[in-house]
Fold Peptidase S9 prolyl oligopeptidase catalytic domain-containing protein.
Amino acid sequence: MVKKVVESSDLTKLISVTDPQISPDGKRVVFVRTQIDEKENTYTTHLYHIDLKTGQQSQWTNGAGRVLSPRWSTDGTAVAFLFDRGKEKQLFVLSIADGKMNRLTRFENGVDRFEWAPCGTKIWINAAVKKEDTQSQSYSQIGLVDHKSKSVEFVTQGNFNHHLKAVSHDGEKIVFGLAGNLQKNPHQPLYLYDTKTAQQTMLTEEQGYFNGAAFSHDDSKIAYAGSMRYYGDATHTELYIADLLTNTRFCLTEGMDAPIGDYAISDYKKAVAPAVVWTKDDHLYFQVSTMGDVRLYFASLDGMIFPASPDMEHVYDYNVSRDGVYAVLASSNPIQPGELHRLTITTGEYQALTSFNQKFMEDTELVQAQTTFTTGSIDGVHGWLIKPASFEEGQNYPLIIKVHDTPLEMFANTFSLELQLYAASGFGIFYVNPSGSQGYSQEFATASRDFTYKDLLSAITDTMESADWIDVSRIAVLGEEVAEQVTLKLESMNIATTFVHFPDLSRTDTPNRRIARLEQIVNWLADNV
């Protein structure tokens, strides 16, 4: 069978899976499946369910709108989620027994986040509430919604945004972040709130930015992510442990010179993966961005840390069973769009749970990226080179050099329809993580723009010398400020180079505008390179 080449309209064929949530008994998983509705030019997301024993899948919600952030009740009899019909997100609860959906909130600005109370009859929420003395100013506050009466009781107030992070298993404590204007004051300390006494105490340092907390199963400890921002936005995010019994704190990942969390650049809008997940035996799991991968890592409280998932892939969302036996990963690699996989942690066995993009992969010619390493200003510079889909030995081809300008991200071993489209259009593609990128050492991440620029030039010239199929008279550089500087330097070296900048709306814009952008870029490149 002859496979077809990638087209911009293939965007409508790709299906995204996110937010896997394992049931309390460990036998089922719910997740969110997103696809494009071409007629309505929008994204439709629904709640899906998998029986882990039989592998049977079923769709649990229907109709227009977007389901977000599903969460099982403590007893596994219901799933709560946010539902967005295009105006605001409201909280709904789905009964597993009869499939009935019950709307719990009707806030003007919607609900941002929620967590089940352990009793199962109430749900903690974050919602924007207007101040009593004004009709325009509002702040995010935390409250409790009663499942039956739908009444809301707020427990926070004031001219600050309170961000709900975690609820203890006994229901007696919550963790929240307190933030004002993050642009003026980029700090967010975490606070511990006692639901019985209404007293709050500071859990973290006041000057750092901390996020994503989780209670251990006996509620004696809290794990949370964040940093003291010693290097501003480039500071590695670490994982911390607060021991509530001894009133002590320590950094669990202090000896690991890589940031926790997901810093990968991909076609997909970033999933809101948990910062950390505890198992009942006090082991912890979290994402780490390292060498172009985003992997699931294991840690014990005595400081043992190692990767739990394979390399050469992007784990963009995950969940771990309470007993720590297995994890459900939403993962991708350069020639496979995201799917759910079950990882048996003790054996490393990897089992596919979904195959929504299988037909696209079977019908379409996709090109694997080749890893490259060149000498850099601080460490080796890691990159990828993709040959044109029509590649033939002895022929010369134009090259696209893709540059990212933000220090907060990294190119990664993940699927990109945009890069595959360039390859299908007859272009080679080269992209690297120079000094200043995340996913490597702290020294690497904090490098100056001068080092970034030097690393890019070195990697590009080395690659053009080693890959004899590159037509050095037909080079295009895609990016922003740094990309333009690279273009000027290559031109001074008598390498015919074109610089082009297109706004990168690929992960957030409407489907028709994303497709139009891809077509505009490819057509421009075909006419000018």
